[in-house]
Design brief:
Number of strands: 6
Organism: Chitinophaga barathri
CATH superfamily of the largest domain: Outer membrane efflux proteins (OEP)
Protein name: TolC family protein
InterPro entries: OMP_efflux, TolC-like
GO molecular function: efflux transmembrane transporter activity; porin activity
Family: Belongs to the outer membrane factor (OMF) (TC 1.B.17) family.
CATH topology of the largest domain: Outer membrane efflux proteins (OEP)
Number of domains: 2
Order of helices and strands: HEHHEEHHEHEEHHH
Strand content: 5-15%
CATH architecture of the largest domain: Up-down Bundle
Structural class: alpha+beta
Shape: elongated
Number of helices: 9
Largest sheet: 4 strands, antiparallel
Amino acid sequence: MATVLPFMHQKQTMKFFKVLSATGILLAVSLVLKAQHQPLSLREALSTAAAQAPALKVFREETNAAAKYGDLIKNTLVPELTAGYQAGYATYNNITGLTYPGLFLPISGPPSTGNTFDPVPGTVLSALLKWEPLTFGQRQAAAEKAASQYRLAASEYNDELFREQYAIIVTYLDAAYLYSLTRSYQGNIDRTKTGLEQALVLAREGLKPGIDTMQFQSALAQAEMDILTLRRRFFDQTAELIRLTGLSSTPQNIVLSDTAFIRELPGTSGGAETDPAHPALQVAVSRVEVRKASLKEVQREWRPRFDVWANAYARGSGVAADGTVTKSDGWSLSHRNYGAGIQLSFPLLGFTRTNIRKNQYRSLLKAEEARLEQTRLNLRTQLEKAQLAFEQNSEIARKSSVQTEAARFAYEGLRISYESGLVDYTRLMQGQLDLLRAEAAQAGATLQVWRSLLDISVAQGNIETLTDTLK
């Protein structure tokens, strides 16, 4: 006995360590699998898209660029100061000290007494200042137009964000709907397996023909194929969620954490009016403001221009005023000049062009105002249709739940009758199919109610109408 107990104790110890090792392996695998899964709620999908979706980054950066355009308009108040140096080699038959125009104010040199084709060098170093301190309202009009363009870019970003949120919610609703369908399809598989087991027992006892077992096996294979197809469609929707949100994951790793709501009906349809801050309305309003600012800018075209200039430069010439040629003096910058002045100009005949452009921009403004009114009308009609659809779809969903309960009750009665030998396989499977169709129809009807609520949220311009109802 003394020799057996240590051996038994050793075996129990080894068995304990094997169990412990197996438990550790299972726990590690479970943790790895859990780490790979990425829960994703609807609100997380919306916030993630707003932060990192590439499609939204496009509009965000375009808005930033529009803001810089306003800074450029303000920067025109800063004087322009240009420094330059030129060196040339030219004849001096008419004017000495020849320079290339653009950076220097011209100054004439002494004329030559005859035609001499012996070129001499000439140099010039200059600083030219140009300034428009007064624009008679033109700079202000340009700044107002730049500000309205920035507001338009910002409203277009908000509109794109709103559209992106709508696409994400639609995709999430479809994915949650498909996920809920898998429960019905899995229940259909379980019912078919139970029927197959019962058919095998009844066939062995001679109460049912053996063909029933083959029919149950065929129905089971079809049910398993159906759920695989359903899962593929579900992964298609999760892949679309990844694309819309910019997540770095795979469809198989996404776990929807908001799925319970799809089996329940929302209790309210929200408010009855469109929010004045609706993104689509704000885009239309911003376009009207841009047209108004553009018209104002055109109206201020036919105004004077006031310029201030100043010039300081030194020059050297290889020929003197008396015609003496000393080529080395061309590099010495021996003569220095400075000057300053103002210039007031006015396009006398520019009024015809300005009037044409005024009429053009007035028509463009009227077009944008009409588009704004049409947008208001569209949203009002869209809201009315969405509210009507919500009421009708809610009623359909309530009736579909009654249909599902009746189909489930009928199936249970047929199952008991089949086990008692009162009905055949065909009647039982028809009842089972009716139950599956009723469950799928109820899930689809519930989805339509949520989509109607989403349509109301879109027409109102407030996505929170839907997200606030989530549990």
